Each structure stands twice: as C-alpha cells, then as structure tokens.
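Figure 3 (text version): structure tokens given as input.
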C-alpha cells in the first residue's frame, strides 16, 4: 500500500508539472493573440495590394510586348524638349553654323586634288582654342 501511495504521489507531481507548463503556454498564447488578430487584419489589404501590383505588371508586360512587336516611336526625338536648356532659335543657328565648313584661299587645294576643303574650322565639343598658332610648313624658328 505504501508503494501504491508513493506511485500516486509521483503521478500527482508529474500532473502538477504538466499543468504548470500548460498554464505558461496558455499565457503565452493570450499574449500573442492580439498580434495574430492584427496580422489577420492586414492580410486582406496586403493581398489586395499584391493583386493590384500583379495587374499593373500585366499591363506593363503587354505594353512591352507591343513595343517589341512594333518598335516605331510614337514621339519623334526632335519633338521632345531639349535635355539642356537652350532657346529654339539659338539651337537652329548653331546647327547651321557648325554644319557649314569654311574655306580659306583657293578652293582647288586639297590632298587629293578634288577641290576638297582641308581647313574645317567649325566648333568641336570640348574644344579649347590654342593661344599660339603653329609655324607654317617649311618655316623654322632658326635664321
């Protein structure tokens, strides 16, 4: 009988330990419950946002596929505003001035004799004019 009583006490101690463990688990669940409820409230709005993004991506994918099939621009680059601020009149004048080569002296001069001008004095991007001119052909600095 004493042995049965000892076994009963062991079983009661084990049950009390398990009961304490269950109570601490339940208190943890009670603490977590508001967070879980809050997250479940976010889920529909997140799902809606993801759906909207998928629709937008589908529309963009369709536009890219159309552009890949028909690569003709609907807007010409000339119709776009300039990247750098310039007035329209100044831009046209500069383009005309740079496009026309200037000739000096006889128009028949040229390396191949085809009346090609060898002295183009137009503007270059980033050009810094030299303050000194080079000596002419056959001229030396010594006398």
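Below: residues designed for each position.
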């Amino acid at each position: 009988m004493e042995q049965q009583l000892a076994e009963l006490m062991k079983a009661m101690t084990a049950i009390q330990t398990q009961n304490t463990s269950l109570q601490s688990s339940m208190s943890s669940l009670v603490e977590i419950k508001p967070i879980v409820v809050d997250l479940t409230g976010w889920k529909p709005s997140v799902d809606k946002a993801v759906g909207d993004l998928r629709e937008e991506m589908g529309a963009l994918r369709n536009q890219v596929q159309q552009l890949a099939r028909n690569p003709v621009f609907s807007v010409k680059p000339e119709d776009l505003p300039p990247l750098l601020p310039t007035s329209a009149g100044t831009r046209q004048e500069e383009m005309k001035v740079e496009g026309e080569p200037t000739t000096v002296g006889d128009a028949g001069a040229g390396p191949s004799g085809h009346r090609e001008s060898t002295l183009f004095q137009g503007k270059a991007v980033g050009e810094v004019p030299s303050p000194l001119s080079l000596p002419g052909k056959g001229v030396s600095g010594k006398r």
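The CA atoms of residues 93 and 99 lie 10 Å apart.
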